[in-house]
UniProtKB/TrEMBL annotation, chain A:
Lineage: Bacteria, Pseudomonadati, Pseudomonadota, Alphaproteobacteria, Hyphomicrobiales
Organism: Mesorhizobium metallidurans STM 2683
Transmembrane segments: 12-34, 41-62, 91-115, 122-140, 160-181, 212-232, 244-262, 269-288, 294-314
Keyword presence, Transmembrane helix: yes
InterPro entries xrefs: ABC_transp_permease
A family per Pfam: BPD_transp_2
Major subcellular location class: membrane
Name used for this protein in its record: Putative ribose ABC transporter, permease
Membrane topology, from the record: Multi-pass membrane protein
From TrEMBL, chain B:
Domain ABC transporter: residue ranges: 26-265, 276-503
Family: Belongs to the ABC transporter superfamily.
Name of this protein: Putative ribose transport ATP-binding protein (RbsA)
Keyword Zinc-finger listed: no
Native organism: Mesorhizobium metallidurans STM 2683
Amino acid sequence: MASLRLLLAKPWVWSFIGAGLVWLATVAFTGGYGGGGMITAALSLAVFTVIVGVGQMFVITLGPGNVDLSLPANIGLASAVAMKVMDGNDAMIVVGLLAALACGMAIGAANYLLIRALRIPPIIATLSASFIIQSIDISYGRGLQIKPPPGFADFTNWQVFGIPVLAILTVVFTIGAAIALQRMIYGRSVLAIGQNIRAAWLAGVNVGRTRFLTYTLSGALGGLDGALLAGYFRGANVDIGNEYLLASIAVVVIGGTSVAGGKANVPGVWGAALFLVLLLTMLNTFGVSAGVRLVLTGLIIVGVITAAGGQKALR
Amino acid sequence: MAEANADIIRRDGAERHFGAASMDIIRLDGAEKHFGAVRALAGVDFHVAAGECVGLVGHNGAGKSTLMHMVAGTLMPDSGRIAVRGGIEEHYSVPRALELGIRCVFQELSLCPNLSVAENTRINHASLSGFGWRRRAAELIAAKLDEIFPDHSISADDIAGALSIGRRQMVEVARAFTVTQDPLELVILDEPTSSLDAHTAGQLLAFVRRFVASGKSCILISHLLGEVLGNADRIVVMRDGKIVASDAAKAFDRDRLVTAMGGAEAREKITAEIAKREAGPLRVRARPARQDDGKELVAHAGEIIGLAGLAGHGQTDLLLAIFAAASRAKTGIEVTAPVALVAGDRQSDGIFPQWSIVQNIGIRSLARLRNGLLISPQREAELATFWREKIGIRTPDMNNNIFSLSGGNQQKALFARALGSDAKIVLMDDPMRGVDIGTKLEVYDLVREEARNGRTFLWYTTETEELDNCDHIHVFKNGRIVANLRRDELTEEKIIQSSFGDAA
């Protein structure tokens, strides 16, 4: 009983409860048909939201005003870069992944340069950067649909006992991210800066380096995500990352990370990503039209964020 | 002590008997308050008469703040009665207190940092509405500032967050004395001079005397016993949630107050124990940016260097410049060892509000607390426990949030952060403001001990008494060092002379 109460006090529990409820509702509607397959599909799709969500979480935790709006453009460009470098050749998979990572890191570093050197607020800096990135992507990709190498496409869709391997790897990665957040100097520095940037500086935290690393990390994760998405959906595309603007921010907030900064948690990103994907599946299963589906998704996100915010005010 | 108690009871009894209660602005009978298992107030009888300035003293945690929250209406007693001007108040609250003319300036600065001085004033005066409210609010606050602090140089258009902490406190105090609709009978001043220099503090206290002479009342809480002795009509001493002495101010002197407050052994003047120390290696050499003559601040290992003068005359700026120079080379400043800073403005420069006491202490030493790549929770806890013992942080559990501590203990945690680090140079930015005398004496001892072990301290303080702990004192004026005194040359007059004199 006591341990249950302790569990309920964790901010991330609610996102998992939400995901569970949505799954139950859908399974109840289909009369128990396809419950397992739904989880497999949800895991495969949630992976992409989790990867960028973790990057966004570190950025948002840096404190008010910090957010990376360049992720969708970043994902789009990186997907094109990865596919072009791989060029349908299985031998080039690793090189292509590294190229996508490098592309993302460069974008992240450029974002921080804009914020730091030109003293532009992060929202404006990353948003304007995303226009530039998108233009580069359009001229670089030329609207070509380059197919991923078969080995890479198979890898992104590989399952073991109904569990996507990519999801397992992402779980390992998120455990690493959680450890970095709580137990490494980098994570502590991010949390300190998010609570009070001046106090962090006066306590000896290397503020500049931490912020630089955070934006670069977010960019790198966006780049990786782009490559993986291109493999999963069998081709690069300028618009491939569009839905991850709202999704990356929503999973951070629904997952229990404070929008005001200084307080973050990684498990919640998983719960919230599963919740969002399952929600879409549920609405599809109910046969709701696309327009209504979008409206409902928006309303539910607003509702969850309001509820989460209300909880915080009580404390 | 029993004698003192008997004294209060007799006096209170006599007053009740003669119906003197109707003269009281406020009276609390048998007020009790518990926070969980902690008994903050244990049946306190307290009153303030019209035209009286009551001084309230006691250690941090003695119950002063709880009692004042009840007078101001922010807390209700668990049991006991509150009466204002003889009438029992059943549903006492902040709006009711304001309606009755009872106001409070709490220690935590409450101005909205993003609003101007005039706009902050408007918050307290709903009647300033319609066209031109901003101008009327500006006039109101400017007139009051002029009255309390002549030559204050604060504009009503200044944004509160851009003012120095001393000026914010001046605005805060002045705002409490402005009058529009509600009457003004009693003002609670909780550490009103903690961020003020001697000059402005004097202006404020003189104003309080004029205010009281006009028949109004005041409660003055201060850890500077001289201020209370010199300005209160009656002094109430609290300890462990009880009133342990209450008498005319004339009947007290410093020693009797300290004895009544308990705990702190009579403060012995730090005698000339500057055992002629060999000057250690050079740690800091710094010239303020605006210094135009050759004066500079030089500190060696094991020295305690005082930075004195009026508040806001460049002491903090120099400390921050030295802090910055430790990580990035800067012209005019030479720093040869790691630096840590103890903030004075705790909320904006020191505390991480989401974190436990342990994490707040550990943040400066993370690199040393690692085991491989990861921070070891065990080592972090050991560091915190060591300093909890050494500096006496009073808490049941170091894993509690930092805000579970009283102000003085929060400050101790910040000291622990700096002293527990690898820093050889510790910068102190007036860290003792609003801290009780017991805590202060403990920390002074610790600072001298650490200096004997070779640490260097640069200590900015607004309290002249603290300079007794320093080997050298630099007096600042307008961003420059105007005098450099050894401790044996130090007198209050010399500091005041240098602070106010024409720049040499």
